[in-house]
Amino acid sequence: MNQRQFAALDDYFDALLEDPAPQPAAEPERPAVAYADPEEEERRRALESLLATVAELKEEEAAAVEPEVMARPAPLAEPVIKATPKVSTPEVVPEIQADTQVEPQVETQVSAEPAWRNMDTEPRFQALFFEVAGMTFAVPLTHLGGIYQISKLTSLFGKPAWFAGIMTERERQLSVVDTARWAMPGHTQDEEYQYVVTLGESHWGLSCHQLKGTAQLTREQVKWRTTPGSRPWLAGMVKEKMCALLHVDALIALLEQGKNIDGQRV
């Protein structure tokens, strides 16, 4: 569209927006002149040309968008598979022999500590009695490892206060317990022990002041415990002598854990 057409179109729209001028008094009708205003005709043609141009632009725009839309990949759909003869293969099932047994999986649970059980003794058994700071203890001879005179002790760093030290006896290293401090928490007095009583097959030994000999006991002379309570090391009480009968296995377990008579690590 040239500059002249734009100007004519602008004048045409201005004319439409302007209010009509007041008309003079009606005059007698005269026959219409059979000719057209050249400017009005030019404005009309300019408007028609503009509308045609706009329509062409819309058609061109639609034509340009359509190929673009068609060029986009179609959404994924299920692949088309040509029909081919289906060959069925027999399912292979492993043969299980008649004598084959399938073992069920069993979850094994490991308990943290074995259940406490009191000592087993014969109806009559021998026991050794020994004294520590005025207290008397008894241990069945079947659970006794040996008796040694106390000798030089080598202390170890980081051990509990009741750990007296290491004693070497016949190329065997024994862990000696300060029994008074072990049995009486808070006891700080240095004791002069004479002997070491070892427990079973372990390397643990209880230091003591005096050996009071052995005696034969019957099971009826002992008040046996049925539950471990807070002192699993105590198997029972010898009624006549009013002394504690040591549960050797439970006592060894406490010593291995670094615990005293009350089950405390001190």
Secondary structure: elements and pairs:
Elements: H1 3-17, H2 38-71, E1 124-132, E2 135-140, E3 144-149, E4 163-169, E5 172-177, H3 179-183, E6 195-199, E7 204-208, E8 210-218, E9 222-224, E10 234-238, E11 243-246, H4 248-256
Parallel strand pairs: 2-11, 5-7
Antiparallel strand pairs: 1-2, 1-8, 3-6, 4-5, 6-7, 9-10, 10-11
Helix pairs in contact: 1-2
Describe the protein in words:
By secondary structure, the protein is of the alpha+beta class. Among the domains are: 1-14 and 36-65; 124-256, no CATH class. The protein has 4 helices and 11 strands, in the order ααβββββαββββββα. The chain has helices at 3-17, 38-71, 179-183, 248-256, and strands at residues 124-132, 135-140, 144-149, 163-169, 172-177, 195-199, 204-208, 210-218, 222-224, 234-238, 243-246. The chain has a 6-stranded mixed beta sheet with strand order 8-1-2-11-10-9. Strands 3-6-7-5-4 form a 5-stranded mixed beta sheet. A hairpin with a 2-residue loop joins β4 (163-169) and β5 (172-177). It is rod-shaped and about 150 Å long. The model is unreliable at 15-22 and 79-84 (pLDDT under 50).
Write a brief caption for the model.
With 266 residues, the protein is α+β, with helices and mostly antiparallel strands. It is 24% helix and 24% strand.
